[in-house]
């Protein structure tokens, strides 16, 4: 297993190099610059050109890329033009919020999806199965940002049950107060994200349960007198988890990368909102660092999915 993981990590190195070149070039091809209107609305053309020159933005792209890579290997992601602080510190501050929200959403997703998928598959064709299928079809047809906006409007503004901005209340104090405030701010976006993310898991698990309960090994277990609950718990459920486990790594990294909609709509100070703001202000150093980070997370998600699949079913060997 460890040899396979090491080989896969080594294969990722040229992929990350190619990704870094594409990310850097695409960021530099964006129209505009990070200084016009952000330093001083009355700043003249000469002052803008001076700032561009001293920051090396007039250098050839390959020289800029080389300087960026050298600084990157020294742990220096550059300085944010908009926030005037280290990009590493800036991302580190926002990454904690994104990580907490992503983990919370993922836990809620599986807590909701696994029972629903098992129940729908076990009661195929009955009323509960029909209701769950209608839920998955309707949820699948509605765009994610629409679910977020409607949920924010109903529960945040109309009913006023949840906060609509931020990650921690300004009045929170102490360890327990901070934890409760963070949980309170994550509850609505996490629940809405989980309800949307359950669709594929429920559909996959339902189909696997339906196929598994008609398989020969289940018929044999029933013929031996194994209780129905034990059959579903030890036979059907375990074998039905294989396709779900295959998407486990993608689910984790996908939540980290897919937080842009959630954080933008809820004004949640995470990496997604930072990425959107950086594009608006042409903050090249932050854009390149975040896109490269998201790309690396996707590569790691592929490896993580294979590892999870190998743990769930030891008969499967990753290559």
TrEMBL record:
It comes from the Bacteria. PROSITE patterns: ABC_TM1. GO terms for cellular component: plasma membrane. Keywords: Cell membrane, Membrane, Transmembrane, Transmembrane helix, Transport. Residues 95-305 form the ABC transmembrane type-1 domain. The chain crosses the membrane at residues 9-27, 99-120, 132-155, 183-205, 241-266, 286-312. It is a multi-pass membrane protein. InterPro entries: BPD_transp_1_N, MetI-like, MetI-like_sf. It is found in: Cell membrane. The keyword Coiled coil does not apply. One of its GO terms (biological process) is transmembrane transport. Belongs to the binding-protein-dependent transport system permease family. This is Oligopeptide ABC superfamily ATP binding cassette transporter, membrane protein. The lineage of its organism: Bacteria, Bacillati, Bacillota, Bacilli, Lactobacillales.
């Amino acid at each position: 297993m460890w040899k396979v993981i090491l080989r896969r990590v080594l294969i990722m190195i040229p992929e990350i190099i190619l990704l870094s070149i594409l990310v850097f070039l695409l960021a530099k091809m964006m129209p505009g610059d990070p200084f016009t209107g952000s330093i001083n609305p009355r700043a003249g053309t000469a002052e803008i050109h001076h700032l561009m020159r001293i920051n090396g933005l007039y250098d050839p792209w390959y020289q800029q890329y080389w300087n960026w890579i050298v600084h990157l290997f020294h742990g220096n992601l550059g300085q944010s033009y908009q926030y005037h602080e280290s990009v590493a510190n800036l991302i580190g501050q926002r990454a904690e919020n994104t990580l907490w929200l992503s983990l919370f959403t993922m836990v809620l997703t599986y807590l909701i999806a696994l029972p629903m998928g098992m129940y729908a598959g076990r009661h195929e064709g009955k009323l509960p199965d029909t209701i769950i299928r209608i839920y998955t079809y309707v949820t699948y047809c509605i765009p994610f940002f629409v679910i977020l906006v409607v949920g924010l409007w109903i529960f945040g503004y109309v009913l006023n049950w949840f906060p609509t901005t931020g990650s921690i209340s300004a009045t929170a104090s102490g360890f327990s107060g901070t934890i409760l405030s963070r949980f309170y701010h994550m509850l609505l976006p996490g629940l809405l994200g989980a309800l949307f993310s359950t669709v594929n898991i429920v559909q996959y698990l339902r189909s696997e349960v339906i196929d598994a309960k008609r398989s020969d090994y289940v018929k044999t277990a029933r013929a031996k007198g194994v209780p129905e609950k034990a059959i579903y718990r030890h036979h059907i459920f375990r074998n039905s988890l294989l396709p779900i486990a295959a998407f486990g790594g993608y689910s984790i990294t996908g939540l980290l990368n897919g937080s842009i909609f959630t954080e933008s709509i809820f004004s949640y100070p995470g990496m997604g909102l930072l990425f959107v703001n950086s594009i608006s202000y042409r903050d090249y150093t932050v854009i390149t660092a975040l896109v490269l980070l998201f790309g690396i997370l996707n590569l790691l998600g592929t490896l993580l999915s294979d590892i999870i699949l190998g743990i769930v079913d030891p008969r499967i060997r990753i290559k």
